[in-house]
Amino acid sequence: MSFVKTLATLAAGFAAAKGYDAFRKGGGMAGLQERMKDNPALAGMAGSIDKTLEKLGLPGGTDAVTGAVAKAGETAQKGGAAAMSNLGGLMAALGGAMAGGAASAGGMIDQMTGTTAFTATAEANARLMIRAMIEAAKADGAVDAEERARIMAHLGDASDEERAFVEAAFAAPSDPAALAADTAAAARTQVYTAAAMAVRVDHPAEVAYLQSLASALGLDAATVAGLHAAMGLPAQHG
Questions:
Q1: CB under 8 Å to 150, separation ≥6 — which residues?
Q2: Rounded to 5 degrees, what are φ and ψ at 67?
Q3: Residue ranges of the domains in the chain?
Q4: pTM of the model
Q5: pLDDT one-digit tens code per residue, 47-67
């Protein structure tokens, strides 16, 4: 597959594991797009989600994703937080996966469909975002064996190398400082977004992890607030 596609499928796994109910209560995809339009950093992407998902090989765009996640959510652990509303965060993160190494987000999507060879930058940034999602998800110690199995099941045709990378990330201790040190300046916002979209931000340990990561990445309060608002997440304080 590729680490960029592994990032996308892993994010879907986290979303299904956290539950579909919050996505529905938040207005579904229409509500998500409206929240994205309200954030200057993401407004330009709000109207192109359908096209993006089509290029990712998901016929039917947002309708297909909503239906698929709803079905997955029927057997996944239900949660009362903003898990699925964070799909906007995934779109933002994927849109910046090529930061510093691609001409545009459109070029990144072309690469994801196999029309262009993946660059080292794309793959490296995808690895960082995978680490960020997993570290954040582990912050409250709530990723049990069953939930982890559901998440891993979404990897589908991931290669042995990609699966091993994900397993190693689950096994490794969370270290936001080390993650930040490995992250280039151009990818800092995307790495934070990936971490934030993997959690509900309703547990002190999750809040503490995101605060530590934001600080280590050098993200100011306004940037963090904008990202949280776009994803329907609680604001960070302190």
A1: 13, 16, 17, 76, 77
A2: -65, -40
A3: 3-231
A4: 0.65
A5: 554 554 444 444 444 454 444
